[in-house]
Design a protein that fits this description.
Blueprint: H1 3-16, E1 20-23, E2 33-37, E3 40-49, H2 55-68, E4 71-79, E5 82-83, E6 90-92, E7 95-99, E8 120-125, H3 127-136, H4 141-148, H5 152-159, E9 165-166, H6 167-177, E10 182-189, E11 195-200, E12 207-210, E13 218-221, E14 225-230, H7 234-250, E15 254-260, E16 265-267, E17 270-274, H8 275-279, H9 284-292
Parallel strand pairs: 3-4, 4-7, 14-15, 15-17
Antiparallel strand pairs: 1-2, 2-3, 4-5, 6-7, 8-9, 8-10, 10-11, 11-12, 12-13, 13-14, 16-17
Helix pairs in contact: 4-5, 4-6
Length: 293
């Protein structure tokens, strides 16, 4: 039983259990099947041999699943040690792995539900920019700390470049300073260790998390969930747009879109916004309005 057969058997088991499914084909991705029923979402990576799943694929699958509030599972037939036993949960790079025979029992015996919260994010402070804004606003370190409601010692560390800041604290300081002080890229601590690149989306306080092995480039989660893909050749954009449309129908509060250097409009109904439009967005509500146009 090769990978396609594993995908077909798994999708059939999900549909027989009452799930609506989206099967991903002809796109390199860390997730092969998305399935949803009521308030439950499952993300499946299919592999004939579970040892063929790379660390990057497993990490990206877990990252996407957390953003979607989904349960992530690798479904396969064997490993390098032989056939997978039914009813046994294996582990590969922190991902749960089960046999195709075990999969239909998931309805009664759930894999641990993953939290729907996005990873906690730290941003790097641009110390030169921070000092410049303090100078033109005539604010001492103590006055800035007091106005922002932040401990003075914490602000001293930012001025000296000795600490990262939480996005919440950085945003408080930027409101007082009336300007951006983040260096553009930070790190998000993941549940199972390791770090992932995160960057501020436009001029909002939303953080874009890299999910490079997914069919999209990055994801954000606040009131809604956003899947983002960047410029690609027209054929690839069309294939991704069709998939994004299917996911939009399957998942609640789900807003997929493309970011392009020049073009805007829509591809198969999926919004395309330009990089210049992104930089003009200051709040999530403005992004939703732009995507709804």
């Amino acid at each position: 039983m090769k990978k396609d057969a594993v995908m077909r058997k798994t999708a059939r088991a999900l549909e027989n259990a009452g799930y609506s499914t989206v099967v991903v084909r002809n796109i390199h991705t860390c997730i092969d099947i998305f399935a949803s029923k009521l308030n439950r979402t499952i993300a499946v990576k299919a592999a004939y041999n579970i040892d063929s799943v790379s660390r990057d694929e497993a990490t990206a699958m877990l990252r996407v699943s957390r953003m979607l509030g989904a349960e992530a599972v690798v479904v396969g037939e064997n490993s390098q040690n032989g056939m997978l036993s039914e009813g046994v949960v294996y582990r590969r790079f922190s991902a749960d792995c089960i046999s195709t025979g075990t999969f239909p029992t998931l309805e009664e015996n759930r894999i641990s539900k993953l939290a729907a919260k996005s990873a906690g994010v730290k941003v790097r402070i641009d110390t030169s920019r921070l000092r410049h804004l303090m100078r033109i606003n005539r604010l001492s370190t103590g006055r800035l700390a007091e106005s922002a409601g932040v401990a003075s010692e914490t602000v001293y560390k930012y001025v000296r470049g000795e600490a990262y800041a939480s996005l919440r604290v950085a945003t408080k300081l930027e409101r007082v300073l009336n300007g951006s002080i983040t260096a553009g890229c930070g790190r998000a601590n993941e549940r199972n260790g390791g770090e992932v690149e995160a960057s501020r989306f436009g001029n909002t306080d939303m953080l874009l998390i890299n999910v490079g092995e997914a069919p999209f480039s990055g994801m954000m989660k606040r009131r809604n969930t956003y899947e983002i893909s960047y410029d690609a050749n027209p054929r690839t954009m069309e294939k991704r747009a069709r998939l994004f449309g299917q996911l939009h129908e399957l998942l609640d509060s789900n807003y997929p879109f493309f970011v392009s250097r020049k073009r805007n409009g829509r591809v198969h109904g999926i919004p395309v916004i330009s990089e210049s439009q992104v930089m003009g967005i200051g709040r999530e509500e403005e992004l939703v309005d732009l995507l709804s146009m």
